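With this grant's support, we have settled on a layout for protein records. One resulting record is reproduced below.
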Amino acid sequence: MSDAKQTIDDYTERVVRQLPAPDRDRAKAELGDHLSEAAEAGELDEALSRLGPPEEAAASFAGLRPAPPGPMDRRIVAVVIDNLPLVGVTIALLVQGVARVAEEGVGFSLAFPPFVSVKIGDACVSIAPLQCAADAYAGAGLLYSLGVPLALLWSIVVLGLLEAWTGATPGKRVMKLLVVTETGLRIHPVTGIVRRLSPLLGPFAWLDWVPVAWGDRRRLLDRLTETKVVSAAETRR
């Protein structure tokens, strides 16, 4: 029986690792009980065969394949909450730019999300039209050179990893939303980061939301990464 218990524990662990956080405890308990009962009846091999590989068992257990994307109004609120550091930096850049206009009479550029660029010698790689973003934010000092990168790091990497590890960001948790694959499974960390790369495009990041204009509830990067944002309530059926 000890070998059977080890088999059950290993299989259950491999299944629950692929499930969104809200499903894991329930899945571990239910799947463990089911396989333990099968083992006591001498039918463990048959039960594992019916369940299939852990990936298939996880997809079936999640039950989120048919779940539709969550309401867009809740997603937008979640986006605002999650990107408060980026919003704060942008507002600070605006205040600083207005102050410079008043004091020095010089113009300034501003966008949300802010333009980003990389200086390589005299060359500049930037999505900003006509000029290097670093030049556009000249005089912003640490607010641009440190504040913007840190805010983008939060919005892209930190939030992406949170989505991979827990299925939700702070904003999505408040709005009761969950990020899953198209089959209802936990997303990979790389996927979590890739689906959040649009802020690197500066204000062109909003192109990622173009499908919303014709009623689609999935961003372009949602489709590219084969993910969707669903109501967390769907995982408690």
Notes: The beta strands are 117-120, 123-126, 177-181, 227-231. Residues 142-166 form the longest helix (25 residues).
